[in-house]
Fold:
Amino acid sequence: MIKVDNVTVGYGTTAFVKAVDRVNLTINDNEILGIAGESGSGKSTLMRAIYGDFSTGLRIASGTITGRFARNGTGAVTEAESHDFGQLWWDQISYIPQGSMSVLNPLMKVEKQVVDGLPKRERQGNRAELRRRIATFLEGFGLEESVLDAFPHQLSGGMRQRVLVAIAAFVNPRLILADEPTTALDVVVQKKILLMMVEIQRRQRNSLVLVSHDLGVHYQITDRLVVMYQGKIVEAGPTAGIFANPQHEYTQTLIASLPRIDGTRAEARR
Amino acid sequence: QEMTDVGTPRAETLIVDMLNARVGNPTNMNMYQQGVTVNHGMHQLALSQLYDIDTAAGTQIPGLAAEMPEALNEDFTRFRVPLREGLTWSDGEPFTADDVVFTAEMIRDTPALAYSAAFIDAIASVTKVDDHTVEIETTRPTPRLSIVLGSVIYGNAFHVVPKHIWENEDPATFANFPPVTISAYKYMDHDPNGTWFLWEKREDWQNTEVGQMIGEPKPQYVLFRSYGTEERRVLAMASNDIDILTDISPESLDILRNQNDKVRGWFTDFPYANLDDPCERGIHFNTSIAPYDDPQTRWGLALAINAQRASIATFSGMMRASPLAIPPTSVLMDTYHQPMSQWLAEFTLEDGYKPFDPDYAIRLGEQLRSEGVEGIPEDPEALRELLGVGWWKHDPEQATKLLQDAGFTNDGGQWKKPDGTPFTITILAPADFEVQSQRLAFAVANEWTQFGIPTNVQQMQAGAFFTAENTGNYEVGSYWGSSCAITPDLFVRMEAWHKDYVRENGTPASHNQGRYVDEELSALIDELRAIPADDERIVPLGTDILKELVEGLPVIEMFGTSKFVPVNETYWTNYPSADNYYEGPWWWWSNFKFINAQLEPAAAD
Amino acid sequence: MRLLRYIAGRLVVYALVVVFGLTVLFFVPRLGPTDPIEAMLAKVASQGAYMDASQVDALRQSLADTFGLSGSLLEQYWAFIKRILLTGDFGPSLSMYPTPVMELIMNALPWTFGLLLTSTLIAWVLGNFVGLLSGWKPESSSSRVMEGVAICLYPIPYYILALVLSILFSYIWQIFPLTTTIRGAPWSWNLVTSILWNSFLPGASIVIVVFGWWVISVKAQTTALKEEEFVRYARLKGLGDGRILARYVLPNAILPQITFLALQIGLMFNGSLITEILFDYPGLGLLIYTAVLQGDFNLLMGTISLSVIAVATATMVIDLIYPLIDPRIRHR
Amino acid sequence: MRILKLFENAPFRLYLGLFLVALFVLVGAILPWFAPADPLVWYTTPRNQDPSWTYPLGTTSLGQDVFWLLTWALRNSLILGLLVAFFSTLIGVFLGLAAGYAGGWLDRVLSFLMDALLCIPSLPILILMAALFGGQLALPIVGVALVLFNWPYPARQVRAVALTMREREFVNVAWFSGESSVRILVRHIFPYIAGWSAANFINTVLVGISTESALAVIGLSSAQQATLGTMIYWAINYQALLAERYVWVGAPVLAIVLMFIGLFLVSSGLSMRSAARRMSV
Amino acid sequence: MSGAPILEVERIGRIYRRGGIFGGKPFYAVDDVSFTLPETPKVFSIVGESGSGKTTLARMVLRLVEPTDGTIRLMGRPLTGTSKERIDNLEFRRLVQPIFQNPFEAFSAYLPIGTYLIRTALNLKIARSEAEAVEAADAALRSVGLSYERIRGKYIRQFSGGELQRISVARALIPNPKLIVADEPVSMVDASLRMSIVNLFRQIVEEKGVSFIYITHDLSTAYYLSDHVAIMNAGRVVEQGAPGDILAYPSEAYTRELMAAIPTIGARWTELDEIDRHYAHERTRDGKSADKHHQEHS
Ligand SMILES: Nc1ncnc2c1ncn2[C@@H]1O[C@H](COP(=O)(O)OP(=O)(O)OP(=O)(O)O)[C@@H](O)[C@H]1O
Ligand SMILES: Nc1ncnc2c1ncn2[C@@H]1O[C@H](COP(=O)(O)OP(=O)(O)OP(=O)(O)O)[C@@H](O)[C@H]1O
Ligand SMILES: [Mg+2]
Ligand SMILES: [Mg+2]
Structure:
């Protein structure tokens, strides 16, 4: 679906700062692709480049990102470069930005923010009907219908995050890019959201790219995993394979360092 | 046909600038109430006084009265006042002695009217003799009853009211609107916000004093209106929206003449202004406060002034200088200034110094001519007549000497008072209600500062200004005080200098705000008080008083007031002017009705 | 219950503010050097009418009695506060005795309110509009020109601006009248047009100046908002510029301007003073000015108290309704 | 439009603004010392001259050299405007911060004061004070009065910001770092409103200068001191505008406008630059 | 003072209001919570889902929020109230230091980060001069694997979250406090750093004798790090004890739910299988994934 071909991405107009270095990556139809990596390794940057969001001073220095989208129903195929993805936003691709506590308009009720930006095909029926569909959809995330009438600040962080995932998924896109959608949420909520995302992916049979630095999350839901380190992809392959047999040193330490409830405790090492 | 924006034909409407700007309570025309302004035509056209003033001759004339009052006893306390016959009120009722008597009693019986107290203080009784005669008794010898009950300058508070209207009203609350009027015009319309008032000529104008004395007034309508700031008034006249303007600055007149060739001042040429205003401008002292209590100081300060420069600074030289304590109007110049110039020239200060400079006008004339001003007479006498008989010399050396004699010291350019403190002066000046005094204050401050005494001007709004002046809360001030005179009889003007009126600083004084005590002067004033206005001793006494004032110099008198009062001849002509001097140009006085009656419509081209 | 407590608390503050304002207003002029009686006498004297000294003294005494300026300052103060708070009566005007102050104010008020309120609102709307656009697209040349115009007009001294407007539009091109002449039957179309006609220049002069201020402040606001996460997110949702501006930037930029508007009402009364003096416009400002000049205590109290009360009320009303407009405050 | 493009550029704005402001400071602070004669004194020059080499901006109807008069006026107005702006911003920002940060009774008292002062229209009171202080306000008194009426504006705004700042975590960190309340206000919270304060400062400079000129125009300021306001006052008094002596009345007006533009460019340039610096890695 | 427990929390509670246009109805965010931190340095974890009152509790200990009920005693002396014994601000800040959740919010964007460390050393009288303060800061930074040289003159945007959090820890260490209250210190930090920070805590407890209140929703780090765990739900402590005991044999259903939500490697959530089963017949892919899951479960 998306082909990232030897791409170098960075920031700055005068002095170019490299953030993603000669990366090759393919996103297939109907899969959950995980991206792991330490902070600052360029995960978000890669996501922005794929989404085609160049508003932050992002620049593709070399290489290309091309996409091929088959429309639901008609099957018409659109091919484009990531620079032209703008026209596909919130239609073929949707995006859950990182650190999304403040991405909702404080003066708009949640319902409006879900509807705002919906492609035509998803706007079937009258307002009441649409609302009911959204409400049902949200229920799947453990959110009551009343959330629709709330202003963002009335929701807890976990609720807001779920709303964001819901907004991005309700569009029914071919590709969802989720940048750390569950970081900073408690595990109970995290689990709910992850399950929901899997469920949606299975139903829509679209593609989901999930960025997370929590390997446990990747283990649970991704089909394929990419590990980034200092702007480069150091390891890629089916998730199970990587956990079974990590190749790169960084991946190995990551997996090894995860605490387990039944495992050793720091105190015990005394 | 061209119409005004109040809906009258422009050619039949005379538009006059309203003196006190907008009227806040336009539907109250009860002139006896304290806060009612009647400068919107009521005073000038619709009301009438018992006695009015002929400003060209400088004499009082009968108005509603048929003749000047006749004293019935030696000590001037009883008078017979005959009334004009054949007058009617604007509602058709005849005007009789009953109206006069009613008015007097109404005032006396209504203490809520502020004027009541003043009236009772002066007038003991008014009684009817017949339908057209009353007798008046005063509370004290009053040789000049016509001054107490009639207009000398501007107007008088005593207005006869129609008995048949007022007898059923409480004068303290009665609004008198729309008013029943006695003179040739009646109320027609007004702006609810008080920006304009429209008056219409009465059909029975013959039954009015104006009709009897002058004839039919030509303007069918007279519109009094306010245009606000000076800029606006100037623009309005430049665009022919106003025919008569009250006071403006010389610069404004200059602009008007450039913008519109139908606009003219009192003179067609230099100095444009009317110089016969009966009030004089000068620098006043609170003579009860050191160091201004010393005549030496005052004389020193006078000689430190370059009057020529001050004149140009104030009104570009368009002023008539006066060293005497009366305004240099044509009438008074003939009576006093010219005859006294010999005495002035020989007058010496204590140290033998002769301060008078008879060539002031000649030198100013030269300077103005050199600055390119046209129309300055060559003849020295004509110049003196125009710019004044002379003024005090500008002599900084003598000024220094006088000040040092008075105990001042000057070390290194810094003047110190006799008590050793630095000598600085603050001149109290009107903030924006009297431009000539205000500018004069700055001009004199400029002179004194150049002489070496730091002087600043403290401008005050009217209310604060008069409070300060009356309570003596000032040292040096620039305004007329009570320096107005129009007739050769100087009583009105000089009475104010009597020591009886001196009050402590802090207590308001009604006269003699300069708190000047001069025994000889007061004795002369006592003499003047006792004789009537037509007595032959009037002028010699007046001369003596003026000499006394020159010696003591409680005021540095400087210039007569120049009135820049332009008219626009597009719609009306035959305005009074220097060449056509049938009245002075005081459009806001009660005698305006006589001017109005003599205007002619401009020939339609 | 909490709602009532909140409102009650706000009302108490409101009352205190008003009383504080009235107190200042009571004492400041009385500490001043203007004695209304002397001012009144001066008015008589300045017209040159002759009265001899004993007559003047008699007049002075009778004026003091009628104006009721007797008793100690504190007594006058309590009487004043009681009278105003209980009856809203400011007594008679001193300089226009015996016309009641309330009557004068009521005549002037509609003019001032009509002129100031409309022009302030127009300026607010225009200013917000232009400020929003130029903050949104600072690189477009039209927004730069607008900003430039606003910045150049805003600092021009008001007096000069008004004067130049008059010269241009009333004298050189005689479009608008030089002075206010309002004619027409009550409630007639003529009256309305006449009012609009006469108020245009004073209104325009206010709009021009105030407009500049709004442009500058709204532009700053908008520039900051553009960086907000939710605006960027809206863009990432593929929303068009118009939509983002209308639904995301505008409401967030406008909200703080609403509180500003309340403050602006206070400045409005300042502005009215000069405008009305300049255009000879029959409103409160001119009345205040007259009152100051004449030392007309009662009128002064009446007019300024009214503006204090108006501003205090406006701020209070905005404080009270603000939670209804801004959901964030509502639920804090 | 290429010129306009330049304004996009923070340094350009900043430098142009600084240039303008520096020019005014230079003209106002240095040139007055070189005036050939006291420009306030009348008749040091011929009257009503048009601009020429000897009189670069012509002379007034009172025989004053407009150029030198302008330099003096600029000096006084600048001093007045800057001092008023400095103190009202300082007091406003500090009290606003204190009220918002401290909360409790201090907040209540200060908020009350702000609300109350904001409700009192300043111009009539200034006119009253003009009467109170003897008809004509000396510049320092005008200044004090302006400060008194102007500090509540920034204070109210800043208080609102401080209220939200109080919730920010870094304020707690600062407290645990042992910072005193004053230091927290000044060093930690203030920078967040510094840009806003600068804008307010600049606006208040203008308010100071223009209120003074409003007072002057109705004859209530100190007419014998040279300020931009009194210059306009005298020009209006002598009908310079109608008499088409545009330089006399135009010079002070243009000076006010240019000064404001200069200050505005400095403040917006500064905020653009500091934003750019914080964003850069 | 010796012998008194570092912290005694006795039946504290805190009321907030929620809902409604103005105010709303009151509810207990923290309700009747008691626990004690013994004198010997320990890590005390408080675990619970979002909104369970963890932060409120921590803030009461940090004196940032006034408790509505109950008392808190630090080293035997009251923390709140008006009594003379009450610990003054300076002393309190030398004894207790916080670490907050969001490292990007913990420092002003307008101050170089170094300032915070220097000021802490100076204000809390750890150092008497700038030079001493730099030394103290450097020492603290080195104990978290950084150095003063590396952070000198830099601003918040120039650091990663992990670095910032370590700087936060370093700052908190400067006064050698008795107690550090860390409110979700690692939830915003990536996995590799998370463990290094957690290990850092352990190391600090052991080497510097500092006690920790460690607040988290992540049971695994709590289990890994702490000596004592309290599980909170809806403002109450539902269960507390040694981590081994509680987590091995959770008596509360709530605790079990928490445990089940941890994305553990090697134990796939059963719910995922259900989803896959539901959509299995629709999957177009080769079915490898289904096999894969099978293998791992066996
Ligand atoms: N807007 C920007 N301008 C300049 N540099 C940036 C910008 N955003 C990120 N960077 C830099 O690019 C690099 C990669 O950042 P990125 O946000 O992609 O990392 P990440 O893997 O998403 O990290 P995290 O897990 O912390 O989100 C970092 O060094 C970062 O400092
Ligand atoms: N200032 C406040 N006013 C009103 N309610 C509050 C306030 N602070 C917290 N609450 C409420 O108190 C409850 C407990 O909040 P708290 O922040 O302590 O939970 P938490 O366990 O830290 O949650 P999280 O894991 O999301 O940080 C929540 O319902 C919250 O909405
Ligand atoms: Mg990222
Ligand atoms: Mg929390």
User: Anything to note?
Assistant: Residues 104-327 of chain C form a domain with the MetI-like fold fold (CATH 1.10.3720.10). The radius of gyration of chain C is 24 Å. Chain C has two domains: 2-87, 104-327.
